[in-house]
């Protein structure tokens, strides 16, 4: 460690301040308290749930299977919570997360409706001073569990604020339900949120105009209720489910396909694609031919099959043509829908191709494109998020010598295992950039467990300060940047930050996947956490 300025130690208010009450923050709080640390969790929303608190638009739901997205740390919890559907909707997810908070007595440790506006590290005392609402809290360790998809993005469209009707972002949906009945509605954006909402409201509205910039490959979610027999099977299989989810590369239960596309004839491949089309959620990616994402020809054939499906479902050929993407499957995060393409057969629904007719401005009455103005009662912005770094870069985090995190990351994030970075001692961000490529809670759970390993090691050694070593951060960030080109996602996707004007194009996921994360964590633990430097305040005795 370059600097040794840690001189005094005064007791902070808490061992840990955790920011964010979503899936990751709740688990982090549980693990911290269970390990005997003092902790408080600060959440800007008026309820817990994070993503699943804010994204309460019609038909917001998991597109990973409910029981693979949920917590696995407690068999009792797994057994007592019966998910109603294979892909749970937002209300059920929010109920589940509240249940977890109460079940494990976490609520008393959570401050709701409180936004963190700054967090500054003091080198002399090795503590963080966190400003949250009216409170100033000092803690040894700061954990940002602020999520990768938590800062909603509004495009800079002229006149956006001047619209006189109702206006909503899917990621900031109000708690009181929005009444769409008989309304003229515009939806801008056709990502995962847009496709869920569009199909859900089409029946109620007077008219629905969808503004699409990039068509995406939306395949059926194929959701259904979980039968009593399946509930019993899930309970009986808990250990094997947990084992598979804790060790699989993607964090899903899906069984990989055991042959490559060349092993099948064209007719067999078409039968297999049909099977994929009818299979649940992400299996279209994880159980498809293994060469789907590595061989452009294989991918193009799957796209040909999907384009045929779209043409078969959507009756108006011009609309169908607009809905067929011009990129390969998996170059962007694929959405999963329920009757999405069918919705365009509803005469109340129309599709505007923004590449042909861009929005020129939002007016007081509606939206104006090159084709003229259309009036609306409601505009829904389903325009996504500042992925990966958005929330972290806006929390006022200041490390050594007042170093601003957003400056340190001005050219894109630099991290060790997607949990820590140099210059910011005693600071961790499980679930952050460079961490995952797959089922997020599984990766983030691995990261929380690793953070706890580091903190317990530090406590046992009687140290006060922990900071990642430069080589360790260079190794992980180098791995991310080197292998970014092997990712299926293209540089035009939000996983590279391309959706945010001016954001550096850097890969924000972990291209090594879960095996890489697991092996790096194992190496860190085997090496006695030598990827970190630890420091103890002067005069502090080591524990016996
Ligand atoms: P996404 O997937 O980022 O989708 C955002 C959509 O908004 C997408 O269709 C964008 O088109 C569109 N968009 C963004 N900016 C504009 C502008 N300026 N004009 C028109 N359209 C625009 O966000 P979601 O909320 O749907 O999903 C986020 C994640 O939640 C998802 O990946 C899952 O993990 C769950 P673009 O493709 O950029 O051309």
Descriptive labels:
alpha/beta; binds ligand NA7; 544 residues
Explain what this protein looks like in three dimensions.
The protein has 544 residues and is α/β, with parallel strands linked by helices. Helix content is 30%, strand content 16%. The protein has helices at 23-34, 51-54, 66-69, 75-80, 90-103, 192-201, 228-236, 238-247, 266-277, 283-286, 296-313, 317-323, 405-408, 440-461, 470-483, 513-526; strands at residues 14-19, 39-42, 110-111, 116-122, 127-132, 135-144, 166-169, 184-188, 207-212, 219-220, 336-337, 349-353, 359-362, 366-369, 372-375, 378-381, 397-398, 427-428, 465-468, 532-535. Strands 1, 2, 3, 4, 5, 6, 17 and 18 form an eight-stranded mixed sheet that branches. A five-stranded parallel sheet has the order 7-16-8-9-12, covered by helices on one side. It has a three-stranded antiparallel sheet with strand order 13-14-15, with no helix packed on it. The longest helix has 22 residues, at 440-461. The model has no long low-confidence stretch (mean pLDDT 96).
Biggest sheet character: 8 strands, mixed
Report strand %: 15-25%
Bulk shape = globular
Ligands bound to this protein structure: ligand NA7
Q: Can you give the mean pLDDT?
A: 96
Radius of gyration: 24 Å
Counted by DSSP, the helix tally is: 16
Give me the count of strands: 20
Low-confidence stretches: none
Question: How far apart are the first and last residues' alpha carbons, in Å?
Answer: 25 Å
Helix content: 25-40%
Determine the structural class based on helices, strands and strand pairing: alpha/beta
């Amino acid at each position: 460690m370059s600097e040794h300025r840690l001189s005094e130690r005064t007791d902070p208010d808490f061992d840990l301040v955790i920011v964010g009450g979503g899936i990751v923050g709740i688990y982090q709080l549980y693990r911290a308290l269970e390990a005997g640390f003092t902790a408080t969790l600060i959440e800007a929303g008026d309820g817990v749930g994070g993503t699943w608190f804010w994204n309460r638009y019609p038909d917001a739901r998991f597109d990973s299977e409910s029981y693979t997205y949920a917590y696995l740390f407690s068999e009792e919890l797994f057994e007592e919570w019966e998910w109603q559907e294979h892909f749970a909707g937002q209300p059920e997810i929010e109920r589940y997360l509240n249940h977890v908070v109460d079940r494990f007595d976490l609520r008393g440790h959570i401050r709701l409706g409180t936004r963190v506006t700054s967090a500054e590290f003091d080198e002399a005392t090795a503590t963080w001073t966190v400003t949250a609402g009216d409170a100033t809290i000092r803690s040894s360790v700061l954990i940002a569990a602020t999520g990768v998809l938590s800062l909603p993005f509004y495009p800079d469209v002229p006149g956006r604020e001047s619209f006189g009707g109702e206006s909503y972002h899917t990621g900031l949906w109000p708690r009181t339900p929005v009444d769409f009945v008989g309304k003229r509605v515009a939806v801008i954006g056709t990502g995962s949120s847009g496709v869920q909402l569009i199909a859900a409201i089409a029946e109620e509205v007077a008219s629905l105009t969808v503004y699409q910039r990039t068509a995406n490959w939306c395949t059926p979610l194929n959701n259904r209720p979980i039968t009593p027999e399946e509930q019993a099977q899930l309970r009986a299989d808990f250990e094997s489910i947990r084992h598979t989810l804790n060790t699989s590369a993607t964090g899903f239960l899906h069984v990989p396909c055991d042959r490559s596309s060349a092993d099948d004839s064209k007719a067999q491949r078409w039968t297999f694609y049909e099977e994929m089309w009818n299979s649940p959620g992400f299996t279209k990616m994880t159980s498809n031919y293994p060469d789907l994402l590595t061989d452009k020809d294989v991918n193009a054939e799957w796209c040909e099959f999907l384009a045929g499906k779209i043409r078969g479902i959507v009756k108006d050929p011009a609309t169908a043509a607009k809905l067929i993407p011009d990129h390969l499957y998996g170059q962007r995060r694929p959405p999963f829908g329920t009757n999405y393409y069918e919705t365009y057969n509803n005469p109340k629904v129309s599709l505007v191709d923004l590449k042909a007719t861009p929005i020129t401005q939002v007016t007081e009455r509606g939206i104006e494109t090159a084709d003229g103005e259309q009036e609306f009662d409601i505009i829904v912005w389903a325009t996504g998020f500042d992925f990966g770094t958005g929330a972290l870069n806006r929390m006022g985090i200041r490390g050594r010598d007042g170093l601003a995190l957003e400056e340190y990351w001005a050219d894109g994030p630099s991290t060790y295992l997607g949990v820590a970075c140099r210059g910011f001692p005693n600071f961790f961000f499980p679930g952050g950039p460079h961490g995952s490529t797959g089922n997020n809670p599984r990766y983030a759970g691995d990261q929380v467990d690793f953070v706890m390993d580091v903190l317990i090691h530090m406590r046992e050694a009687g140290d006060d300060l922990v900071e990642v070593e430069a080589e360790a951060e260079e190794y992980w960030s180098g791995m991310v940047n080197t292998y970014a080109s092997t990712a299926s996602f293209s540089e035009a996707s939000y996983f590279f930050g391309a959706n945010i004007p001016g954001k550096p194009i850097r890969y924000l996921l972990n291209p090594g996947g879960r095996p890489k994360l697991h092996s790096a964590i194992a190496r860190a633990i085997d090496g006695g956490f030598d990827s970190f430097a630890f420091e103890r305040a002067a005069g502090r005795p080591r524990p016996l």
